[in-house]
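Appendix B, record 7
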Amino acid sequence: MKTTLLAILAFAPIGVIVLASLSVMGIVDPAWADILLETRGFLNPVAIFCFLALLVYLIDIWRNPRVPAEKRALWTVVLFAANWYALPFYFWFYVRKA
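Structure tokens (predicted):
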């Protein structure tokens, strides 16, 4: 269950980007973008999702025994700096085999 949730959180932003790219190219109906990218002030559902994914992964970094203690601070900085770009890599290295 935990592994499945972390996999969804890691790879869902990539799916949104693929859909956005297909929408820009005219392959997919752009109506879905109105729902996902609708701004509500400064936030939209995709930004909220990425922020929640970051929080879940930060908690996992500090609680996962598979992450070496000397690399926890490094992964924290990497996730803050690269956010959804780094999520699949962290998943592949430390969560997938659990």
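Remarks on this record: The CA atoms of residues 51 and 83 lie 8 Å apart. The chain has a mean pLDDT of 82.
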